[in-house]
Amino acid sequence: MSRVREAFGVEVPLRRLFEGPTVAELARAVETALAAGAPAPDGPIPRAPRTLRAPADTALPLSFAQERLWFLDRLEPGQTLYNLPLVLRLEGELDAAALAAAFGEIARRHEALRTVFAERDGEPVQVVLPAGPWELPAADLSGLPAAAREREADRLAAAEAARPFDLSRGPLLRAVLLRLAPGRHELLLTFHHIVSDGWSMGVLVREMGALYAAALDGRPSPLPELPVQYADFALWQRRWLTGKVLERHTAYWRERLRGLPAETELPADRSRPAVASHRGAEHRFALDAGQVSALEGLARREGTTPFMVLAAATLALLSRLSGRDDLSLGTP
Fold it and tell me: Model-level pTM?
């Protein structure tokens, strides 16, 4: 919908995409908005080219999402709720120096990965650190017996994922290389959510493959320079979402969330603690091919996504267990 707003200069609510999920229906929604003279809140969204960025010595604001995470970190320092761990298994001969060079280039390309969060006059600001060589610590577990090796690899991965970040000092991306055997490695990556998300992790993995191959061959980066950085977006967002524009969006969500219960009471076998311990657990299960096919078929018939079908099923279950029909569901 942001591309629609950028191309046509009109605001089309996101719900229109789900009410009419075809190109023809979306085109009619755009035509209706144009005929009604419904401009975007600030006209078409401008791209934020590098030339519009504040000088490096100017305080860069946080995006609203970043500020929320910064506030939560200040409220409960040392929590690891927003650590994003990722374990990559690498098969075949590995050049650790080339891998470190690839990481260095990724950090150079993506300023968010070398950003820390300072406080100036009581307000958080982004500070982009200079690019430099990337040090890739490594641990060689290949001398351990197979069972002990796997246990130690799991222990190191869990310990790395549970290690807190210092948002004011960084780095907010950590990488550790484990050598399990000749031609077998694990790469432990841990991000803080303030500089990354699930989508960004996929981008990093794809770019790492391209940059590692280039480093092995002694070639420069094959990837084009990025036209914008996350700080560009944060600066644009802060300039746009202010005054009446911010008031309108805030009023909308206050109305949508008005009366929403603060928590969902479930028939648990023990009482809820006064202070959240965050000592939760996860239950993993798999859907067989038939179930996946049925899920995707239902989503197609309803003009929605498999995620929304699963979210609806989860809410239906929570409604049955809690006896409530007004529920909230948080997702990453």
Answer: 0.78
